[in-house]
Protein: Phenylalanine--tRNA ligase alpha subunit
Amino acid sequence: MDTLEALRAELLEAVNTAADADALEAVRIAALGKKGRITDLMKTLGQMDPDQRRTFGQAVNTVKDEISALLDARKATFAEAALNAKLASERIDVSLPVRPEREGTLHPISQTYDEVVAIFGQMGFAVAEGPDIEDDFHNFTALNFPPGHPAREMHDTFFLNEQEGGVRHLLRTHTSPVQIRTMLSQKPPIRVIIPGRTYRCDSDMTHTPMFHQIEGLVIDKATHMGHLKGCLKEFVESYFEVSNVTVRFRPSFFPFTEPSAEVDIGCSRKGGELRIGAREDGCEDWLEILGCGMVHPNVLKACGLDPEEYQGFAFGMGLERIAMLKYGIPDLRTFFDSDVRWLKHYGFGPHDVPSLTGGLTR
Ligand code: 2NL
Structure:
């Protein structure tokens, strides 16, 4: 018992005087480790008679618990002191400038899309969307494409594998099927624009298999070509941020409109620089920017509308084309290269949100 009391006093002293966490750990191992002094004492219990074992065992356990508790307390004290020292030595300097962060850019197609939506939104158009995978009815038949029309050939259109029952879906070749869906599901008056992806089997300098269109549709009882012309003139002037643009309607043909027209705007190309709009020195050239027309009576009928009661106009343009014209992008294919340097150069800041009051492009 004397030796146990002596050991207790020695260990308490060692724990209390350990200089740091490492020294304390050394004390713990020397006392309670596999070959520690208290562990050694426990091993001697086996050779004692039962009475002695009970008394001595209890005494050793008491000492063991006491030392353990003191070790834990000292350990916590060292940990807290270390944390306090760390807090005292480290400071956050809130006046330092922030680290530069890499900022992404908006693709010019996204920017152009947002600009066009902002302009037509202001004129009271709603955005409509529809599926990229379409069927023959919505993409061709309802749009007055005759049965043998070349656009219906494998050569021009991406067809999906034939399904059971002979149905063959396709990737929409224009956004017009969304207008068909709108006319089938909504009653006039209708005023919608449809921006979206479109697909054609075509790939060269000026064509990519996927491209973007934006189409518009207005249906009411007395909508006429004057409305169409005014609407498009307003759009062109807002989009190109110029006033008094001359607009020329050139007769054209689309299966889904009658009459149909190609729209040109006045421009000049002096010194190799394209400038859009009427100018003091006149417009010596024309630039084709979109196609349009009055919705064909057959299209109205296919959508359950009576051509004697309703009429309207529609127009369509390529987003890539109008983006190239406004932002001076010379090569269509670069839109889809995902070249980060190109995106940095032609891309837009995420906060350059186009609005007619704040300026379309800042
Ligand atoms: C172009 C010309 C156009 C339309 C699209 C349309 C849609 C319906 C009915 C009638 Cl549902 N027309 N869309 C009309 C005229 C021209 O697009 O050059 N697009 C790139």
About this structure: Residues 176, 179-180, 213, 215, 217, 254, 256-257, 290-293, 295, 299, 314-318 surround 2NL (CB under 6 Å). The two ends are 90 Å apart (CA to CA).
